[in-house]
Amino acid sequence: MAVAEISNTTEKERSLWEKSLARLMRNKIAVGSGIVIILMLLIATFAGKVAPYHYAEQDLLANNAIPEWMLFLLPEGAENYANFSDAYLLSADHLGRDILSRTIYGARVSLVIAFAGATVSLLIGIIYGMISGYSGGRVDSMMMRVVDFLYAFPFLIVVILLQTYFKAIARRGGGEGFGSAIINLNNDLGGMLFLFIAIGLINWIGMARIARGQVLSYKQMEFVEAAKAIGANDTRIMVKHLLPNILGPLIVAETMAIPGYIFTEAFLSFIGLGVNAPTPSWGIMISEGVQALRVYPNQVFIPAIALSLTTLAFNFLGDGLRDAFDPRQIDV
Amino acid sequence: MYRYIIRRILQFIPVLLGVTLFTFVLMRAIPGGPFDFAGDRSLPPQIVANLEAKYHLDWPMWKQFTSYVIGDDIFGWEGGSRGVIRGDFGPSLHFRGQQVSDIIAVTLPVSAQLGFMSLLLGIIIGIPTGIIAALNQNTWIDYISTFGAVFFLSVPNMVLAPILIWIFALKLGWFPVATWGAKPPYLLGFLPRLEQLNADYFSHAVMPVFALGTAMAAGFTRLTRASLLQVIAEDYIRTARAKGLRERVVIGLHALKNSLIPVVTILGPAFATMLTGTFIVESIFGINGMGKHFVNSIGNRDYQVITGVTLIYAFVLVIANLLVDISYAWLDPRIRYD
């Protein structure tokens, strides 16, 4: 009987997921955005094969090289100083590095941050929020007081300070044992590890609030009571029964938060607190491009377009997911 | 209500103290100090030690912190700090001879003017667009404004700013490329003086304000539209229509006020985003504001400036959040704080 009831709920739950998925598939902009993101993931994964050059490969004779068709972007009189060369499809930067290749490799940082930041914050947020909501009573109010306290912190400044700290530690290097292993791993990843620790550590708070709210609304329901009646322990109830039900809104919220992670990474790189040189990141490229804006405006546009396109895709996908998973949506 | 406000203000104390402690300790834990370099040369260790002794960086951490927050004179310590609680943010360690309070007094007004105008732009463009979109739901007006909103939310200001500069300053030459139009002394400490409020001031302000304000406008558009659509579907709107009220009254009096409640909620986060934006926009436009100063002082390890500016940001944020919560109660009489 109990088994039948549980399998019944999971089946109903699955059909709910299927309905949402079907709704999502009907949203052409969201599907298009999903395809753009998948394409970007493929390009980032196979950057070594796709990019015409390696990101650190430089030719000082080709500094600021620009193909002729891009001349219209430059200020008047540029033909007198410009270094025309067709070797670089979308021009080269001030060190003679191919901007197209660097933009392609730069996708790695942004996309890794998008997914790693989301995973870290989702994991911490779900665990914290579920424990808080499920325990209730004094534990809940204590845990939520901590969240409220942290919520009043100026996030971005905390991220900036943490990242300054991490970067300085990593630059000094050395040490022994676990600490140095982490630092070495971070340096091997071009400084990305600390970046997503910093970003994920800050963003779990919102997720924890949503998870708690969801658990509070589900834990009084019959299927939880039924699970309790057949002797399931708390961990099992949380993982097997509550988690599948609350995951939808959390994933939607997380997708909507991803552009924020990408922005934060670009921002940190822009002010020099992002990945280590010469690893390319769109934020660093934009920051370098801005410095050359008066003479070579073309250099800022390529990474700028890539960055905007990515966040645009994630925003549209997030919107589509929200519309598809909103339980108030009437199915036609 | 008053008790609620007082309780909230009392809650500021641990938050601000926490922020200060976090910044204070973390900055000092970071390898590298404010006296590592003088220009390009590194300083000999004796001079560094002397400088650290002069600024009392050789004191134990708890003593430095107490001195910073409360002041030296109370405990009879030898330093000259009067403590943050009495408005003394201490001396800058990088710009020697300057007080952090003086730096803030010069740079904060610029950031505040920039931020305030951007917020205003966001509200003036965002809310009406959201209303128009909602009232014309599923028409091309709605589609264009919704698409535009997502588009401008997705274009970060570090992208928008160079594009604006390229088009309007370099190609068209309409606006100056950089800097800010107003200089101290400021009216009431933060407003530009009246004689400075000329075409020059605004032509300097247009691009940075747009770079900061469009994303905010997009956020307001999206939220206003969603919220108004939800309110219009409520029963009391149908009642208002059923009793024969004109559409203008139904929307203007009944629907709008209630639909603005969620919009007010994002004013708090919008404030935070705006602060973030000022870091970037001020660096790109070469504006001598607090954001640019903050970013530079991290590289300089200027502990005092970083802690001071962080504290100001935290203060602005908690005040903004409190004002948001108070305006809730004003907009929605069902919300009661006790």
The CATH architecture of the domain at 122-299 in chain B can be given as Orthogonal Bundle
With strands numbered from the N-terminus, the spatial order across the biggest sheet of chain B is: 1-2
> SSE order of chain A in H/E notation?
HHHEEHHHHHHHHH
The helix content of chain B, as a percent range, equals: 55-70%
Overview of the structural elements:
- The complex is a heterodimer of chains A (332) and B (338).
- Chain A has 332 residues and is mostly helical.
- Chain A is built from twelve helices and two strands.
- Helix content of chain A is 72%, strand content 1%.
- Chain A has a two-stranded parallel ribbon with strand order 1-2.
- In chain A, helix 4 packs antiparallel against helix 10, helix 10 runs parallel beside helix 11 and helix 11 runs antiparallel to helix 12.
- Chain B is built from twelve helices and two strands, in the order H-E-E-H-H-H-H-H-H-H-H-H-H-H.
- Chain B is mainly α.
- Chain B has a two-stranded antiparallel sheet with strand order 1-2.
- Chains A and B meet through helix 6, helix 10, helix 11 and helix 12 of A and helix 1, helix 5, helix 6, helix 10 and helix 11 of B.
Summarize the structure.
The complex is a heterodimer of chains A (332) and B (338). With 332 residues, chain A is mainly α.
What labels would you give this structure?
heterodimer; A: 332 residues; mainly alpha; two-stranded parallel sheet; 72% helix; disordered N terminus; B: 338 residues; MetI-like fold; 68% helix
